Amino acid sequence: MFILNPQSGTPIYRQLIDQVRRMVASGQLAAGAELPSVRELALEHAVNPMTISKAYSLLEAEGVLERQRGKPMAVAAQARAQAPRTDRLEQLDGQLDHLVLSARQLELSQEDLIRAIRKKWSQDK
Amino acid sequence: MTIPYISAQELTKKFAGRSALDGIDAEVRPGDVVGLLGANGAGKTTLLEVLLGLSPPSTGSARLFGSAAIAADTATKTRIGFVPQADELISGIRGGEYLDLIATFYPGWNRELAQRLVTEWGIEPSKRISNYSLGQRQKLSIVSALAHQPDLLILDEPVASLDPIARRQFLQQIVELTADERRAVVFSSHIVSDVERLANIIWILKAGKLLWKGDLDALKESVVRVHVPTAVAGIARMALRRVVVERTSSSHTTFVALREPDEDWSTLAEKAGANARIESLGLEDIFLELHS
After folding, report:
1. Distance to chain B for A101, nearest Cα, Å
2. How many of the other CB atoms lie within 10 Å of CB of B2?
3. What is the pTM of this model?
């Protein structure tokens, strides 16, 4: 259910956090949906269980996930409503950095980039 | 504060006046999974042997569960599982007989676990060990160290002779073991991708010195590689506070640097200049850069 690449420069717990956040924000993971247990996920990907529980704990602290007694972690009831626009926008930060950097390297102007984004946006709609 | 399972202080080891380990300070605590990386001859096996008390340090101290490693008593030894690089199996007997023999040394021997691993890993218990392949010997050696469910498991190149399927089974077994956070594992391996999966702590040994010891996540989050045109390399050099490696050609300069905790990608990119390309690195690249 998750794509984890242990050999990436991005730590595994970061990859997991980003994917859960995105899936919750997009509604792919609905409120109340249960996540695989730490052990299950660690075994499936053959990764250290602590890296999975670290991701889950941080997501819990953010209010994205909820710990249920004696049951697997689940998407918090309020998760969708709790993610304000600024938070969702923040998730694009990394990609925006790369985009802006590439545009600068190609000596494109801010207007060029915005125009290109507008065009893409209306194409995909 | 709990007593660390392993603790080394200012540990050195000399062979015939030549320094093999130099100023090692390190600890292993319950829950730690330590991946030990180093080039051939860096001192990995020597370090594991001294930490285990198989060989005394020349100066400094190595402690196991709070007592001097070299004087570890039987009770301490039964808490440890060790898979040496060259296995210490008895070739004249059958695999099953060997496990039965090892079982008598350990009160905590888990017969069920041993049986399950023998079956799952395709070990032939009725075959003489002298007729085992290298891979089978390695599997048997691992089972004999795992089945008494040690608090501290130390493995020196445990998977060198295993095929990818057996390696994955081994990794999953270690995952099972470490799900219990009272346990700790230290393992050396040249297969960096295995270390990357299992370890939460990395020790990088270079010429007898610990070049890095600490969290794998922190290591990945702090190391960056920056590529810039040599003409504007000065700007990037100023922006990067801790440069570890610098390579320059007439057109192109590459820096490997440690990022400060307060620096995120965008501030770093801004400071390094518009022409800088910044990348994060996997463990193998980090290891190679630290040896370039």
Report:
1. 7
2. 8
3. 0.86
CA A117 to chain centre: 22
**pLDDT single digits (tens) B210-266:** 999 999 999 999 999 999 999 888 888 888 888 999 999 999 999 999 987 777 777
**Chain A residues within an 8 Å CB radius of B177:** none
Structure-token pair, residue A95: 């990609």
**A46 vs B contacts (CB less than 8 Å):** 168, 171-172, 175, 197-198
Q: What is the mean pLDDT of chain A?
A: 88
For residue A104, which residues of chain B lie inside 8 Å, CB to CB?
A: 274
A44: tokens are 């499936």
Check CB contact of B273 with chain A, cutoff 8 Å.
no
Q: What pLDDT does A83 receive?
A: 60
Strands (DSSP E) contained in chain B are 6-15, 18-28, 33-38, 59-64, 67-68, 80-83, 152-156, 184-188, 201-206, 209-215, 223-229, 242-248, 252-258, 277-280
Q: How far is B109 from chain A (nearest CA, A)?
A: 23
pLDDT at A124: 63
Q: Of chain A residues 61-90, which have a CB less than 8 A from chain B?
A: none
How many angstroms separate the Cα of B157 from the Cα of each of B44, B120, B160? 10, 21, 6
Cβ–Cβ below 8 Å for B275 and A105: yes
* Chain A closest-CA separation from residue B135 CA (Å): 20
Residues paired with residue B81 on neighbouring β-strands, in sequence order: B153
d(CA B242, CA A27): 42
Contacts of B228 in chain A (CB under 8 A): none
| Residue A7, H or E segment | none
**DSSP letter string, A48-90:** -HHHHHHHHHHHHHHTSEE--TTS--EE-TTHHHHS-HHHHHH
pLDDT of residue A80 exceeding 70: no
Q: What is the tally of helices (H) and strands (E) in chain A?
A: 7, 2
